[in-house]
Structures are given as C-alpha cells and as structure tokens.
Amino acid sequence: MSTANHKLIYSDGYGRGEPLRLIFVYAGAKFEDFRTTPEIWEKIKEEQPFKQVPVLEVNGVKLAQSAAITSYLGNTFGLNGKTPFENAQVLQFILGVDDVLLSFKEVYVIKDEAEKAIKVKEFVDTHVAAFFKNYDHFYAKNGGLHLVGKSVTVADIVLFHWFWTFSNKFGANLAPYKEIKKAYDAIANNPKIKAYLESRPVRDL
Ligand SMILES: N[C@@H](CCC(=O)N[C@@H](CS)C(=O)NCC(=O)O)C(=O)O
C-alpha cells in the first residue's frame, strides 16, 4: 500500500472528482477529501496547474487532469491492468467517457429549465444510449464483469460512477444493458463501496 500523502481537491459535488474518491474507497486508502466552496475556489484557482479541478496533491506536489490522476491511482493501488497493453486499454475506456461528457457540456449550460429538460432527454436518448450500448458490448467481449483482464481496474470503478450518474440523475434506463448491470452490481456491492455510497453526502451532480 502506498505511503504517500494524498490530498484530493475538488468541488463539493460528484462530477469528475467522485470517481477518484471511489477509487480511494475501493483501495481502502486514506486521502484528504478537500472540497472547495466557490469562495475557496476563487482564492486557489490560479495555483492549480490547469486552473481546474480535480487536482491530486501527492506529498504536496500537484497532479491535474482526471485521466492522469486515475492512471496514477491505478498504478499505485494495482488497479491498472497487468501489462502495458492492458494499461492502455484501461486508459482507453476511461477516455471514452470524455466523448459523452463533451456532448453534455452544451446541455449543462442551458438556463431555461423547460428547454434543459428537453435537451437532457435528447442527450440521454442519443449519446447516453450509444454510450451504454458500446460499453455493454465491451463488457460482453471481455467475458463480463471487467472491462480489462480478469479483475477490477480503475476503468470499472470510473465507469460505475458514470453509469450511476446517467441512470440516477438523468433517468437513463440501465436495465436493457445486462452486461453493464452485472459489472455495476459487482462494484455497488463491494462492501467498502456500498458503505461509502450509503454514507456519502447527497449532491445534485
Ligand atoms: N480535462 C479536465 C477537465 C476538468 C474540468 O472541466 N474541471 C471543471 C470541473 S468538472 C472545473 O475545474 N471547473 C471550474 C473552473 O473552470 O473554474 C479533467 O479531466 O480533469
């Protein structure tokens, strides 16, 4: 187990920070969960490498970009695949999330609630449905339960978070995607994850 000192800087929401929290929880590793408020963020934004969060401080040294942080945590906790090719496959599945989030960006900024509801439904029916279909296929192709190799990697944990978000927060229906559902349930029923999900702060997104 890593002896490094880890401080995760993110807002008090789920977003791109929550998958990183879930990785720490799954690994049973200690970390400082530093949640910014808008006032704190204004003060510390300029100190961050890309003026964005998440940022992970490792023994006081900053690491930004969620995919890079995920990769670091995967390597640190032995959850990043077993060969260089598997390492790259793990990253491939994590970066696949960025495509669907990019499509969501234009919906997220809509102010009018009625218009937003219509656009969210369109987003779910097109981009999320295609995303679910694709990942269902990836799980099936690898024999179910894991995206890469024969054990849980950070890719399964990160994807769990986005499956949870799209189904719980946007009403996307996971039920038809049997392979995703099995992998999802396996992560959700991990005792450490289960206890965390039951006790974590309830937030919108
Ligand atoms: N490519 C970056 C994107 C990070 C990003 O978009 N962060 C948003 C929050 S999810 C942010 O810092 N917003 C606050 C700001 O830009 O002031 C990553 O994957 O970490």
Q: Can you tell me the CATH topology of the largest domain?
A: Glutathione S-transferase Yfyf (Class Pi), Chain A, domain 2
CATH class descriptor name of the largest domain: Mainly Alpha
How would you sum up the major sheet? 4 strands, mixed
Number of structural units classed as domains: 2
Q: How would you state the average pLDDT, rounded?
A: 97
The rough form would be described as globular
Examine the secondary-structure arrangement and name the CATH architecture of the largest domain: Up-down Bundle
Proportion of β residues? 5-15%
State the low-pLDDT regions, or none: none
Count of DSSP strands: 4
Describe this structure in words.
This is Glutathione S-transferase. Helix content is 59%, strand content 9%. With 205 residues, the protein is α+β, with helices and mostly antiparallel strands. It has two domains: 6-78 and 193-199, Glutaredoxin (3-Layer(aba) Sandwich); 84-189, Glutathione S-transferase Yfyf (Class Pi), Chain A, domain 2 (Up-down Bundle), CATH 1.20.1050.10. It has a four-stranded mixed beta sheet. Helix 4 (84-108) packs antiparallel against helix 5 (113-141) and helix 6 crosses helix 7 (178-188). The two termini are 31 Å apart. The site of glutathione has 8 residues, from loops. Residues 15-16, 45, 52-54, 65-66 line the site of glutathione (GSH).
